[in-house]
Specification:
With about 325 residues, the chain is α/β, with parallel strands linked by helices. Helix content is about 40%, strand content about 10%. The chain has twelve helices and nine strands. The strands form two sheets. It has a five-stranded parallel beta sheet with strand order 4-5-6-7-8. Strands 3-2-1-9 form a four-stranded parallel beta sheet. It starts with 10 loop residues before the first strand and ends in an 8-residue tail after the last helix. About 50% of the residues are buried.
């Protein structure tokens, strides 16, 4: 029997990191419009637009590292995003975005070597998507590949097939966004049922349902995981619910555990590494929520062990993303 470490790692399986020019102009326009119209009378979207990236940028991951240290996270899985093919190209080419992640993962900048693990995020419709993805995974040890269907495609579309086959051949997971989103994205493509064809056609492929259907498709995401032993539920964005109703969130997590087992649930946050999202997040409460779940569960008519919590908080991500864990 493998000896359990005295303190299992905490691995955030869903983090983003941005610099100026990483996101397309159309996203900035839509975000500024939404933010400006949250009040009445509305503000000037152009004034709002100029402030968006100021709170998001973290070029070398220094703010991310400080936040990880502050809350006790050992490692982060940083998910690449490619919205340029769908919305119009961003100022920084997608190749250079991934080069920035490669440099941080390798320890060339940022001081996060051994704690920062990249996932490729390249739109499968790009002509060189397969070539870039293979190089990043094989040569630079990126830990998986991300599909973002709200850009306007289904995960089973023909354009995705070479990437799915590559990931199955290389033994790395495919992460699929599986939650409702808003304008300017196309939310219908993100429905969890979209992975069913992928499961049928690539049964050995490991799939991670990012957000586990949070926001209306929770049951469908769980159903997709129940029916395919290689599909995992990843809990980013669920952290926002604990400040509304922690017991309801606990019920949901325990129901997932009952359905697929604690060994197929991943802790995540969807944390953005910039100034606006550092130092004031609810990440400490999100971690404490899981640490306290064995005490909360009996009051809710259930139970969960500390060993299961260790799996969710980090050991599962270490296994899925091949992240070294001392003593585990």
């Amino acid at each position: 029997m493998t000896e359990r470490p005295a303190m299992a790692p905490i691995i955030d399986a869903h983090v983003h990191l941005f610099d100026h020019g990483f996101l397309p102009s159309a996203w900035h326009d839509a975000t500024a419009w939404r933010w400006a119209t949250r009040t009445f009378p509305s503000r000037d979207p152009e004034i709002v637009r100029g402030k968006i990236m100021d709170g998001l940028v973290d070029p070398g991951g220094e703010l991310l590292r400080a936040e990880m240290d502050r809350v006790g996270i050992d490692s982060s899985v940083v998910i690449g995003l490619d919205w340029g093919w769908a919305l119009g190209e961003q100022d920084v080419p997608i190749e250079d975005v991934h080069e920035a992640y490669r440099a941080i993962q390798a320890g060339d900048v940022g001081g996060l070597a051994g704690r920062f693990f990249g996932v490729v995020g390249i739109d499968p419709r790009r002509p060189n998507a397969l070539e870039m993805t293979e190089k990043l995974i094989v040569d630079h040890r990126f830990r998986g590949y991300k599909l973002y269907p709200p850009c306007g495609y289904h995960p089973y579309d023909e354009a995705c097939q070479p990437l799915l086959e590559l990931c199955q051949e290389l033994g790395v997971p495919v992460i699929v966004h599986s939650a409702p989103v808003g304008y300017p994205m196309r939310t219908r493509f993100a429905h969890p049922h979209g992975v069913n064809d992928v499961q049928a056609e690539h049964p050995e492929l490991v799939l991670v349902l990012a957000h586990a259907g949070h926001g209306g498709w929770e049951a469908e995401a769980k159903d997709m995981a129940v029916r395919h032993p290689g599909t995992y539920l990843e809990l980013s964005n669920w952290n926002h619910d604990i400040d509304i109703d922690a017991d309801a969130t606990a019920h949901a997590v325990l129901a997932m555990r009952d359905a697929v087992g604690a060994h197929r649930i991943l802790f995540g946050s969807d944390h953005f590494g910039g100034r606006r999202f550092s130092g004031g997040t609810n990440l400490p409460r999100w971690i404490d929520f899981f640490r306290d779940l064995p005490q909360r569960a009996p009051r809710l008519g259930s139970s969960i062990s500390t060993e299961e919590i260790d799996l969710i908080l980090g050991l599962n991500a270490a296994r899925v993303y091949d992240i070294p864990v001392t003593g585990a």
